[in-house]
Amino acid sequence: MINNFTYKDIISNIFHTIIYTIILVFTMIILVTGYFIGHKTLLPMFYNNMINIVINESKKVSQHLVNFNNHLHQENDNQEKEHLSEEFELLKKEFSLENIKYYDKNGKTLYSTDTSEINKNNIHEHFNNEVTKKKIHYDFFQEEFSYLNTKKNSKNIAEIYIPIIEKGQFNGAIEVFYDITEHRENFFKIINKIENAYVFISIIFLNLVFITLYYQSISNLEKKKQDKEIKSLNKNLTKKVKIRTQELEDKNKELERLAHYDFLTGIYSRSFFFGLASKYLNTVKRHNLPFHVISLDLDNFKKINDTYGHAVGDKVLVEFTKIVSSYMRKSDLFGRIGGEEFIICIQNNQLDGVKILTEKIRSEFESKKIIINNNQISATVSIGIAQLKSNDTLEELIEKSDKALYKAKEQGRNQVVVF
Fold it and tell me: What gap in Å lies between CA 346 and CA 348, rounded to an integer?
C-alpha cells in the first residue's frame, strides 16, 4: 500500500485513465511493430549476406577451375582428367564442398567429384531456363548423414550454378554443393542474439514506461482524492453557509418582528406604530382626508394581575387584541404602547363611523366571557377619540385622545368619549 492506495487501485487507475491506456497500447504497438520490422529487414539482410558469401566463394572455385581447365588443355585427355580430378578433390577439401560438377554448354557432366555423375546430362529446368542464360542459380536443402555410423545428423547444403562465360558466350557451368551448416548456424546465432537483445531492451523500456505510469497513477489518485476532499469540504461549507445564512435571515426576521411588533399580542410595537402613524398623518393632510386617533385602556387591569397573576393578565390582553383586530381594516393602524394601553389610527372615516366602531369594540369586550383555568373573567375598556384638525400634530392628537380616555375613566369607565 502506497499513500493509502492499494496496488490494485493504482494499476486499475492506469487502465481506467484513457491517456495512460493510450501510452501503454502505443508502447506495445511500437515494440511489436519494431520486432516485425526487424524481422522483415534484418533477417533478409543477414540471409542475403550469407548467400553472397557462399556465391562469392563459389565464384572463386569456378574461376579457379576455369583457369585450371584452360591450363590443362595443353595436356592429353587422360592427364587432363587426372589432374582435374585431383584439383576437384583439393577444392572440395579446401572450401568444405560436398560435391563439384563441371558441365559443358549442353549440360553434359564433364567432371565430378562423384564419378558416377560423369557424362550424365543435366535435366533440371533451371539449367536451361537460367544457367544457360548466364544467370547464377542456387537452391538450399538438407542432407542427412551418419557420424561414426551411429549418430545421424543433417547438413545444410547450398547448390550453386556458376555460368562459365567466354567471349560473352555461355560455354558451360560449374555446380558447387556448398556446406553452409556453419554459416547458417552463425546466422541464426546472430539473429537469436539480436532478438534476445531486443526482447531485453523492450522489457526494460516497457518497465520504465510502466513505472512512470505507476507513479503518475499515484499522483493522479492523490489529485482525485484531494479534489474529492475539496469538493466534500466545499459541499459541507456551502451547506453550513446556507444553514448559517438561513439562521441569520431567521434571526433578522425575528429581530425585525421584535422591533416592529409587540411580542405578546403580535400587533405593532410602540416605536414602529408612531413611525407609521406619522407617515399616515402626512398623507391624509396632503389629501385633506379625515383622520382619528383612538386611545384604549383596560379598566382595573392591575386588579386582574393581582388576583389571577400576570399570565392570566397576558391572556386577557391577547383576547382583547383579537377582538379589536377583527374590526380593523388594512388601512388602519393598531398598536400597543404600554402594559394595558393601546392606540388606533383610522383614516378616511367620519367621526360617526369611528364612534360606532369603538362602541362595538367596547360592547363586545364587555360581553366577552374569558375562561382561564376554570376562572371566568370579565373586563371592560375605556376609549378616547381625537379628531384631526388642520394644524394638529401626531403628538397633539394622541394627547387629545388621552384626555378623552381619562375623562371616560372619570365618568365611570367602560365608555367611549370624544375629545
Answer: 7
> Can you state the angle between helices 301-308 and 310-325, rounded to 10 degrees?
140
pTM (2 d.p.): 0.46
The CA-CA-CA angle for residues 312, 318, 319, to 5°, reads 90
Q: Is 344 helix (H, G, I), strand (E, B) or coil?
A: strand
- Residue pLDDT, tens place only, 175-221: 888 777 777 777 778 878 887 887 888 888 777 777 877 777 777 77
Distance from chain centroid for Cα 144:
66
pLDDT, tens digit, for every residue of 325-384? 999 999 999 999 999 999 999 999 999 999 999 999 999 999 988 888 888 888 999 999
Separation CA 388–CA 153 (nearest Å): 139
Q: Which residue has the cell 592429353?
A: 76
Q: In 261-309, which ranges are continuous DSSP H helix?
A: 270-287, 301-308
Residues facing residue 151 across a β-bridge? 147
Torsions phi, psi of 179, nearest 5? -80, 105
Name residue, grid cell 546430362: 121
Helical residues (DSSP H) of 73-121, grouped into ranges: 77-94
Distance CA 308, CA 181 (A): 130
Q: Which residue has the cell 403580535?
A: 266
Cell of 185: 548456424
Q: Position 359: which residue type? A: E
In the chain, the amino acid numbered 410 is E
Q: At what angle do helices 18-72 and 77-94 cross, to 10 degrees?
A: 150
DSSP 2: B
Closest to 121 (Cα-Cα) out of 103, 148, 135, 144? 103
Q: How far apart are CA 385 and CA 397, in angstroms?
A: 9
Q: Which three cell numbers stand for residue 399?
A: 394627547
> CA-to-CA distance for 156 and 413, rounded, in angstroms?
142
- Residue 121, CA distances (Å) to 105, 117, 281, 333 in order: 11, 9, 144, 141
SS3 call for 109: strand
Q: Residue 417 burial by CB count (10 A; 0-12/13-18/19+): exposed, middle or buried?
A: buried
Query: Which segments of 114-261 does DSSP mark as H helices, in order?
Result: 125-129, 181-260
What grid cell was written down for 316?
386577557
C-alpha angle 253-257-260 in degrees, rounded to nearest 5: 135
